[in-house]
Queue: 4 jobs
Job 1
Amino acid sequence: MTTEAASPLLDVKGLTKHFTMHGDIYSRLAGEKAQVLKAVDGIDFHLSKGETLGLVGESGCGKSTTARLVSRLVEPTAGRITLHDEDLLAFPAARMKAARKQIQLVFQDPYSSLNPRKTIMHILSRPMEIHGLADSWADKRRKVLDLLERVGLGVEHVDRYPHEFSGGQRQRIAIARALAVDPELVIGDEPVSALDVSIQAQMLNLFRDLQEEFGLTYLFIAHDLSVIRHISDRVAVMYVGKIVESGPASALFEDPLHPYTKALLAAVPEADPAKPPPRLTLRGEVSTPIDPPPGCRLCGRCPRETRVCAEVEPPLVEVGGGRSVACHNL
Amino acid sequence: MVETVLELEDVTVRFRLKRGDLTAVNGVSFAIGRGETFGLVGESGSGKSVTARAIMRLIPEPPGEIASGRILFEGEDVLGKSDAEMRGLRGRRIAMVFQEPMSALNPVFTVHDQISDALRSNLGMSRPAARERVVELLSVVGIPSPHKRLDSYVHEFSGGMRQRVMLAMALSCSPSLLIADEPTTALDVTIQATILELITGMIERLGMSLLFITHNLGVVAHACDSIGVMYASHIVELGDKREIFANPQHPYTVGLLNSIPRLDARAKYLTPIDGTVCNMTAPPAGCKFHPRCAHAMAVCREQAPRLREVAPGHFAACHLHERD
């Protein structure tokens, strides 16, 4: 479906976000240097129309910051984001507003992402008003009812408030809101993580259906590897602000190349007692993104470590088959 | 035959709420043998944690009450014990670890203060002896350089390390039963793997029994010997782990297993369970799963199915198995 020649919907190059941590007044008076938290540290990826890129990693690896950078909810420290060959970061306010119609977000917690004081009608029609997509009240009403049906909620719910719904239903409302402006790219930041497995399965199927129906492109962020495997065409694995491995989902999961990807997969407890028990193949705990030392971020934990790892940061290099890995010792 | 450490018989826990009575645990029976690990698995609101709290007699009364049933711990009737006798049981003979170590541990005391407090009051240890024992416990749970971390506060530890501290505290009085309520749910998958390894290793080494509560079927598949599946306050399936995973007999268990995305399968769509969990203050008559069940028959709407043996040691509460 996707051809190499077609220009990607979204192209990200060297995306970086550093947060400077100023510390309290005492440390400043003592002349201590501000620390830098490198949340996202120079990542590259692209998204073609109609595909799903899964972004996976453990807490604090920069997945959510990446989502916020791509939607310009936070401004990057460096890097380029290209949306349909246009420089997203150079957009003036008016053009950015139009771009927001193209890029929509679905968050993890539908309890905090929906305004408790507004009805579902209001929550779903407001984006249409803002982007001038509905002419009359009747038109809005018709579109909202249509959306509710698309996400599998009964039209009788339209005048209710968020607290009258379960977590799964609220997440359907959040998805309907994202779809209200007919976006091209939907970024899901852990959209199924807070849900019970039986509801999670319903939502994953819904994401699939909507993608086919509307030709959506997904940037799907999750920490659950099985969810990522299920929903993604391609996967990027993040560790402490870096993409360490990326490639087609099937190849990456069947034959992981980076020691960190291998460790993540070995740690997943699979729901089958016949499978090997989960174990940790790395030493110690996740490294800190605050003033990280030069070299590979996995230094000190990696079983394949050699001297060069502590000195030179491994670049993400293509290894064929659409796969890229950032490791000195493949 | 292994000795039974914990036995629940037809335990029912009810809460009297303003919006009506809520039966959170409904006729739950299971037994855990010495050295055995039992997993109680189910989705949110199924009654897993209330069951655990009932064993510890930690149900707030009112509004809650253990309405009926028997709980036997090492042959003693837990429900007949006085508050003073319960205090002698909790922490000493039955210990518990929770999901959120940050809220289960006290932020204004050092790790040493909290653990040695348990040792001194429960076991009557002297201050220096307790300090030595805390160092030992922290090293057992894999905290690097424990003599240095001893006087740290909880916020100075990472999530995984906090869970280790909580385990050290739980193990401090060598209990014969450990109740772990979603101990790895808040942790990243690599940390989860190490904590699971630690818990199962401890259980084996110390000959403890484990009641493991989780919503994660992957975790029970590896951490437990036998499992009970809970749905809407009932145990709907009970038996040996291998048997249940290989040959699930209750439609809910089948539905749960089909709902999980797999690392190795590549089906385009999952097979979820339709609908949502029933409202627990006004549950449907008959089997509580019938509104979501593809096999529902007339009898399911009228009569609640009883747990019956479908294979040796394998029980399911479903009318499909009641054709005599």
Job 2
Amino acid sequence: MTDKRTRTIEVGALTRVEGEGALRVMIDDGVVQDVQLSIYEPPRFFEALLRGRPLEDVPDITARICGICPIAYQMTAVHALEQALGVHITPEIRQLRRLLYCGEWIESHGVHMHLLHIPDFFGCASSIELAKQFPDEVTRGLRLKKIGNRLLEVTGGRAVHPVNVAVGGFYRAPRKSELLELKEDFLWGLDAAIEVTKWVAGFEFPDFVGSYEMVALQHSHDYPMNEGRLVSTAGLSTAVNEFEQHFDERHVRHSTALQAVRLPAETTYFVGPLARVNLNRNQLSPSARQLADQVGIAWPCFNPYQSIVARGLEVVHAFEEALSIMSDYQGCSPARVGYEPQVGEGAWATEAPRGMIFHRYQTTADGRIAAAKIVPPTSQNQRQIELDLAAYLPSILHLADNEIAGACERLIRSYDPCISCATHFLKLQIERR
Amino acid sequence: MKESGDHQSISTLPQNALPLVIGIGSSHGDDCVGWEVVDRLILQPDSKRLGVFRKAAVPHDILDWFDCGRTTHIVDAIISNADQPLRLTVAHNLQGDLIASFMDESGVERTCGFPRLQSNSTHQFDLLSVLQLSHALGTMPAELVLWALPICLSKIEVDYQPTRVRLANKHAVLQGVRRITQELSHA
């Protein structure tokens, strides 16, 4: 192979990402001309599907967007609808929602780290190969995931597509005894998550640092989950309901997912655990905060591969915060705040495991959805991933096509993209001319 | 909570474990057969004596429930012209590869390499991967039965003829419930 000819590399389907997509790279005379991250899962039209439905259906319908992060959709939806309806939830409901979100972060980060991402750092083609080398570590990771799922079952009614989340609160609050039954597992989980984070922080990371604008929620006294202002490493600080003044979505020919851009210059931005930790390190739980200072990373960190360390810190945080909420929990009554249907509009953002997620709804006088808008994290990261690949590829063009494909997949996986959410991933085609 | 517990808590079960039956899929289209079989098995009067029942939407959730000492049945649909449910016993050979055993139409036991599943999982960790990972970690149930319930439909029918899908689903579900009940009752 030489640089001065057309070169086409194709990867049938990107592996170990959530969903299905493709990557097309065009190289002309040894120079990367274009990188297109194609999301070819068919559009799912959830926003249109919601129009005309009773607003009570929204948390259950939006939960179906993703089997890995349904809570993110439910939480963002109920908060946005409560804003539209003028509902103010109680502090107890707020804490129970944070507890539910802790379960999703633990489960989702646990799956991504152990089944999808860690194999990359040992040259393993899959977690099955990894399990042969590191059976204890993979078993530990699966147990962490299982504990997250148990918390989702207890607080959300079931682990996949939970059914207990309601506009105004919960259909049923868990009993204190139900949460206390989880305590031993969570004490084990906190220690295990610290060990996992130390383990992944010791991995060898590619020397790749981007100049990103990282965006996340920020809250006055809590690590961001269910609420906060939109802030960025470039100095943005705005209320969530002004989202559209600072962010917009664009159609691109090569993707069924919209790509989000930062206004006014239509630049890219970066959401996810690394953005959250960079912008909110001081809000981490005590153990996670201490660990962040010990893992050998100079914060803020702009190496996307080190997102896995941020994920580990967030798992530690989630276990520690969940333990705190469980210890303080005295029940939640009422489990749900009532409301009257009314014409209204509400916008909200929460922090999904993969990054900030935004919803906006309009409601009708008879309690139906007049309009819905959903901006998931992967569509916000999609263009940034393309630019990362364009920046990274020149350093690996000397490699064989299959090695380039593998390297591209590893970079993409560091973002933990969820393509099913974004279509709302990966065949790789490299075209060299 | 709107839906009553369709999952029983395994942690509360006695250790002299009842068989575990896991339906795979979702509540939609031709994907619903595994879940509907579990729903119907739960509704049987003696279901609590027959087994423990679970529904998985994401295959790797099965790993949470595997218990080496508990006979486990996994139920899913296959597109096939077969007129009877296919009962596969999953094990491994001396080389450590997963293999599946089944009775052919003449009653002769056959063994084959584990069938490569045509997975439509959007989460890149399909049932075969789950079983291979469990095998690598030594958590595979000692007896694992895979029920492949045939749905005789073309791709076009699956995509565009929901009435035919419902009829085919119902047939597959009834066959599955009958065969699995027989087996659980005689366990």
Job 3
Amino acid sequence: MTGQSFKEVLNSGKFVVTSEIGPPKGTNIEKMCHHIDILKDKVDAINVTDHQSSVMRFPSIGGCLHVKEQGGEPILQMTCRDRNQMALQGELLLAYTRGIRNVLCLTGDSIVVGDHKQAADVFEFDSVQLLRAVHHMESGKDLGGNDLDGAVKFCAGAIVTPEAHPLEPQLIKFEKKVEAGAEFFQTQAVYDLDNFSKFMKHARQFRVKVLAGIVLLVSARMAKYMNENVPGIFVPKNLIDELASVPKGGALNKGIEIAGRMIAELKNSSVCDGVHIMAIGKEEVVPDILAAAGLSVDNTTHVPGSGGR
Amino acid sequence: MKSITRQKPLEEIERQLEGMDRIYLVGCGTCATMTKTGGREEVLNMKEHLQGLGKMVTGWTVIPIACDEMTDVSLKESNGAISNAHCVMVMSCALGVHRLAGYINKPVIPAVDTLFIGLEEDPGSFHEVCAQCGHCVLGFTGGICPVTTCHKHLLNGPCGGTNDGKCEIDRTKNCAWTLIYERLKTQGRLDVMRKYQPPRNSHVIPRPRMTKIS
């Protein structure tokens, strides 16, 4: 590892870039490790998803350990769906001892949207309560009020959905997350930058870093599907038309171009503090997105071969 | 208050009856009659179905309130038909099944699953509004229970799966936190929603719960 911690990067004033990887369903970790290799020097931190969409997979903490081993900076995604407070705390202790310093506190998707529809869900805590739990443990106490033999210290983050309808309840929850100690936010995908700017006007009242969620569009069909099926995502018609206008086989490149253009616009307008790029299975094109955005390797902190500082 | 039940799949009912050919049938005149899962008509339909399988129905009854302690008296009237049977099949909620199991020294077989305690909002339309969690939060949620109405039991506001007031798991289900938000907004009490709510006590009374009125 070279350079600063993610927290230092967040506070450095630079345009922050994070991305994410999904661990495998099974024990073949080759692809995940390959994705980590591609991303580790190109972005400031890598989220590792936690049984995303309630699909059972290799665990997020396992993925984070690989990110560490391979020289990247991991963000541990932790949901309340599968863990009671005992399991949440235990995993935070493990994460800390292994050098994981960033945790994204999430409520978690519904069990029934995933691939184990009859499994029990937990949801003993919600994301706001988890954020508070993390900071509580930093005081050297566990949630039962007992002394910890060695406390934790995390840079805790959360998510927000700027395109939610109605928006005000989301904003109230956003504020509760800020009060609970969230230092950074990674947003659900945003495509309408005017709407996003309105959200940011509200968010700028608070001392938190906001990274805009960029989900790579790979086809007009995908965009329409998300509009119809994914709550809180809205792809404007002009982007769908743009994707549909390219010849067959060209949609991915168009998607890369759109993502790059959006990132450049967000950076140039200084509307937010960075971006979180979700390529959803196409992690190998993240460097192309960054190039399309005009962000070179130099824009990130982890310069390969520069040695420790 | 109604105990809401649903008939088990016939295949499961038949599996429970393996090796038992003589059956006494019990329905309930209260909740199971209202929900059409264990009233007179359903008991008679079940009788016909069991006979169609070659089983013998030694008798049947619909007890006024199966969960009531008076059930003991009702059963005594049918003593002969019950002692003739291999088992008693109960078409009431699990409270009735428990009551009968305590009174009869024979296998007691449930024919229905007990789903929830429901409030009748429209005729024939029952809604789960209370999960009996033991720690009522209605005071800060505008009288709408997020523990019950939100399937993630969230206490501090909506998740990202809410969409135009509906829940991502089922577009016919209302998002609890949209309902709570709208009600509190109407009452001018959104400040209540902004207040942090700590995790609930999962063991207000460790199970099985019990209370004694002095």
Job 4
Amino acid sequence: MSIAVQLEEVSRHYGAVRAVDGVSLTIEDGEFFSLLGPSGSGKTTCLRLVAGFELPTSGRILLHGQDASRLPPYERDVNTVFQDYALFPHLSVAENVAYGLAVKGVDRRARARQAEEALELVALSGMGERRPGQLSGGQRQRVALARALVLKPRVLLLDEPLGALDLKLREQMQTELKGLQRRVGITFVYVTHDQGEALSMSDRIAVFNRGRIEQVDSPRALYRRPRTPFVAGFVGTANVLTGALAERVSGGGAPVSVRPEHVHLGAPAEGEVGLTGRLVDVQYHGPTSRFEIDVEGTRMVAALPSTGDEDARVRAGESVSIAWARSAMIVLEPEGAGGAP
Amino acid sequence: MTAIRRGVLGAASTYLYRRGTLQLVLLLAPPLLWFGVVYLGSLVALVWQSVYTFDDFGMTVVPELTWANYRALLQPANLDAVLRTLGMASAVTVACALLAFPLAYHMARHARGATKGLLFVAVMLPMWASYIVKAYAWTVILARGGVIYWLAGRLGLSGALEAVLAMPVVGGFSLSTSNLGRFAVFTYVWLPFMVLPTQAAIERVPESLLQASADLGARPFQTFRTVLLPLAFPGVVAGSIFTFSLTLGDYIIPQLVGPPGLQIGTMVYSLQGSVGNMPLAAAFTAVPIVIVGVYLAIARRLGAFDAL
């Protein structure tokens, strides 16, 4: 497989603020690659650097092996789906989709045909005559996709494209986007702050924190083997134990993580470790119930299958023992030690 | 328990709170009365005057309806004044638009903080001074022996200046008595009215649209022509209505700067003043109204307001 996008020690500083700070990254051709992180973590700036809206303060950006670090956006073979869709309000849907073809000088007939094909691809055929203002949020989203895909870019950049949609539509669009990416076979670079979205769609994910990459891995590896406390806490829910508590359960000084679904109530059995704390609250989540337990000032969560008698088993304020298998426990690198691979 | 406050004002508030229509009527009555009676009323009176008869012998206005005043507009001398004014207003508007757009673009897209404030002040500053004073100041600037002649002499461009003044239509005896001079003063005086709406319109175009255009392969000039200009055009049209109609109706600058020969404004001024031919003056005044109406209809047809 060839490499679609490569970042070499890329930084983007605004005065003293290091929005992106020494990021190195390799994205392969045909990959669905997500940049995941909280707001202000540098993921969007990173995407804008690849698109060419921002220029790096230092480092190199390569697109299919060619140095594109200093190229303007209109000379890069990448297209962007914007968070606010950025559809041209004075043009019809069909004109929006055909815009990239028009500025390239493709003739009117070919333009109209390709635009209609692209609209068909996103299930909007027959909507070409409308104005963007007459469409729903989900439809605008599709037009933005069609407008980028009609140019057949080798890399598609998506900046939180589902952020403005409601939950049901978002879930539906996730499935559609993933299917679309498989069909057209182009590289997707997808920015999101929603870890569920990243986990369900991506081939690989880069987790951003404070302008740096904490970890790059497949969704499965990221969830099962987080390397830093930040990744453990940001991707899914994790009980991260540090200091004396960590030492008591693992015997070492490094922080450890255990997922709530691996924690159960009761004393530790063979091959397990345990702690004792005070029950703070029980939250009912349908199939599971989450027990929040305060262990010497550290809040821990145990997710157990709902049985219907949670309230009877233990009451808030009561002392409760929790335990988990030694093998379910992950030893993390100390905070701040994480870096790009 | 807190006591419910109910003074006279409190009672009035409560009464109005539930009666949206009454509230609306009370709020809109003063501006609508002003607009309806003073503004539209005077306009109607004006148009009405324009179809009255002017008795040339008695120099009096007779309330007999006639189209004679409008027919009089088509007499060569009068038509000439209309066309001259129209040409000047068009030239001033185009010049203002060309000068204002880059400045407005810079103010809307690049200038930040103190620089932006400074630019706004710089644009508005001329409006703080009396308009008549500025017009007189320009007569001094443009006169023979004035700043521009002096500067042209220093730069060795006196010959070029004389060559320009020797040209028909734009030229004249000196800059201050040429159409070029009048054009310069009009452009100076009305430029802020073009900059401000254009700046507001450009500022309203989201940055992401310009980025999307570049992202889709458009070079900067293509983005300007196909995205920025169409979206900012309503602002330019708004500004051009100011520059255009203010030039059409002005009667001070044409008296002070430029060649002899009347413009619409000076024509109206002399007709209603010294001659007292109010009906013909009213007919002249109807010309700019019709022209601006036609202009707006064309702008609308061209899609200038589609992005509003």
